[in-house]
Structures are given as C-alpha cells and as structure tokens.
Amino acid sequence: MKDSKNREVAVNRRAFHDYFVDEQVEAGLVLTGTEVKSLRLGRCNLRDGYVRIDGHEAWLENVHISPYEQGGYANHEPMRSRKLLLHRAQIASLVGKARQKGYTLIPLRVYFARNHAKVEVGLCRGKREYDKRQVLAAADAKREMERALKR
Fold first, then answer.
1. How many Cβ atoms from other residues are within 10 Å of residue 52's Cβ?
2. d(Cα 28, Cα 105) in Å, to the nearest integer?
3. DSSP type of residue 43
4. pLDDT tens across the length of the chain (151 residues)
5. Using only C-alpha atoms, what is the Rg of the chain?
6. Which of 60, 63, 105, 147 is most open to solvent, judged by the fewest CB atoms within 10 Å of its CB?
C-alpha cells in the first residue's frame, strides 16, 4: 500500500503498541479547505482517535487537526467529526467484524495519495499487559541475535 507517491502526514504509533492490527482499510476523508492546508503542514494528532459507524456511514472521531494559521474567519473546528469515504460493502464488513468482542476501529495513519487525503483504518484487538511484555522480549531477543551475528 505504500507507494512513492504517498506522503505521510501522521502515524498513530500508540495504536501499534496498544493493539493487534488484524485488518487495514484505506478510506477517503471529507475535509474543508483549511483542514487540507493544515494537513499539508503536518498538523494532525491521531492518538485518541477512533471510527464510529452510524447507519451506513463511517465517521472519524476525536482526531485533532490544528486550525490553519492563515484561515481567518473560515477556519475549521479542530475536533469535529469527519466523514470517511468507504463503499457500503466495506462498511458492512467492518461493522460485522467490529461487533465481535474486543475489536475496535482505529485510525492508523493519515497520508496524501495522488493529492487526496486518505486515512488507514485498522480493525484492532486490544493487547493485554503480558502481550506487550512478550512483544518487547521478542524484539530484545532479535536485537541480541543480530548483535551476535555481527560479531
């Protein structure tokens, strides 16, 4: 999915730490002009964001896009809900999977693809504390093996 034409704006690193990402879906974003200009400057925070599905529509909630400094009176609300552009079949599939116990929809990254703002939504399952410790232990073991092979 990563092309040389994609330019990342923000990545939700916390999501990869706190959740297992089972599936990823690309969605378009409905934005105002000042939101696009602010995103092009890299002013976006995905940390507490999530996706809410309301009927046949998906909404990006709790994502902060800073107001554009030269926006004036036409500036946008930083924490407003933003509509996601997904096919109806994709939304139906995500609803069915997200209703399972322990699953949630989380924005993983925001980027520009062919001059269109996109968000990568992940179907995520929460990690327990011992899962996080296992991941850290595996990373340490891998690092030690690479060091040993280097010598």
1. 13
2. 15
3. -
4. 455 567 889 999 988 888 889 999 999 999 998 999 999 999 999 999 999 999 899 999 999 999 998 888 889 899 999 999 999 999 999 999 988 888 999 999 999 999 999 999 999 998 888 888 888 899 999 999 999 998 8
5. 18
6. 147
| Pairing of the two strands 116-126 and 57-61 | unpaired
For 61-126, give the secondary structure using H, E and C.
ECCEECCCCCCHHHCCCCCCCEEEECCHHHHHHHHHHHCCCCEEEEEEEEEEECCEEEEEEEEEEE
Query: How many residues appear in the chain?
Result: 151
Distance in Å from the first CA to the final CA of the chain: 36
Question: Residue 14's CB: how many other CB atoms inside 10 A?
Answer: 13
Which one-letter amino acid corresponds to residue 51?
Answer: V
Are the C-beta atoms of residues 31 and 81 closer than 8 Å to each other? no
Distance CA 151, CA 147 (A): 7
